[in-house]
Amino acid sequence: MDKPLIGGQAVIEGVMMRGFGKVATAVREPSGSINIQVNSVKSISDKYPVLKKPFLRGSVTLFESLVLGIKSLSFSAQAAGEEDEQLSDGELFGTIIFALGLACVLFIAIPTFAAKFLHTLTEDAFYLNLAEGILRLIIFFAYILAISQMKDIQRVFQYHGAEHKSIFCYEADMPLTVENVKKFPRLHPRCGTAFLLIVMVVSIFVFAFLGWPDLWLRILSRIILLPVVAGIAYEIIRFAGHSKNSIVHFAIMPGLWLQYLTTREPDDEMIEVAIASIKAIQN
Q: Which of 178, 162, 184, 146 is CA-nearest to residue 261?
């Protein structure tokens, strides 16, 4: 596929799309109209081309997606009538720090701490690290399963499905109409959910050979190595998104299956919003 890659994210009553040097967030307002915010966006890797190299670009993409995603969520909450105003720069920074901190607690500190209780079963550092990774996966699945039961989140997951379907339609070079978009699946190999699952799996292999130092050193080592893990995971999912190899597709199936939880079939109005966000970055 020679078309420029685009990516997106579901937000509150809407969809954010990024591509063609722009980011567009389309939101269905309570009145029924679609409010679209379009901004030019420039990656730090454009200023420092070395950051576009394999295994570096993944961490850059992950952090920039986090920042853009929170900005889009703030706009969507305001446009959908759930917030009076968007986040200020200070509030945005605080939200990012809180999100990163919560992720570190849930997926690093808790499984790392809990794994120490397995010392009664084994003293082998390799198996303790392996057990920690399995605990991290369990927490991740439990988290996804828990939020997928929330009614408001289920609507966001419908918009997530609309995002995937519309991207498939764009990639197939078909006209972006509701009828065309509805023909495509809601499970996409380049989904952020699949990326996070690959991060979890890659971390098991990366951390398995680090030994078993004190708790604070284990937590610190995992935080420091997160860019390495993210870089490897990004290259895997990028390759899988382009590959036609059946073995590769089989290997990424768990990431696609997980999207049965994080996506729902959208209605026509949701698809219209996703289409509007793609057209906004193309113009």
A: 146
- What are the structure tokens assigned to 99, written together? 């999100």
Question: Cβ distance 66 to 55 under 8 Å?
Answer: no
| Statement: residue 69 has pLDDT above 90 | yes
Q: How many CB atoms lie within 10 A of CB 93?
A: 13
| Closest C-alpha to 138, from 200, 88, 93, 192 | 200
β-pairing, 14-19 vs 22-28, is antiparallel
CA atoms of 54 and 58, how far apart (whole Å): 8
pLDDT score at 240 = 80
Alpha-carbon distance of 276 to 37, in angstroms, equals 11
Confidence of residue 2 (pLDDT cuts 50, 70, 90): low
Q: What is the mean pLDDT of residues 235-242?
A: 82
| pLDDT tens for each residue of 5-47 | 899 999 999 999 999 999 999 999 999 999 999 999 988 998 8
pTM here is 0.90
What contacts 24+ positions apart, CB below 8 Å, involve 237-243?
237/189, 237/190, 237/194, 237/195, 237/198, 238/190, 240/189, 240/190, 241/189, 241/190, 242/1
For residue 119, with 0-12 CB atoms within 10 Å meaning exposed, 13-18 middle and 19 or more buried, which class applies? Answer: exposed
- Structural contact between residues 59 and 36, judged by C-beta atoms closer than 8 angstroms: no
C-beta separation of 24 from 17 below 8 A: yes
CB 278 within 8 A of CB 212: no
Res 241 pLDDT > 80: no
Tell me what the pLDDT averaged over the chain comes to.
92
Residue 67, both tokens: 């920042």
What is the distance between the alpha carbons of residues 57 and 232, in angstroms, rounded to a whole number?
10
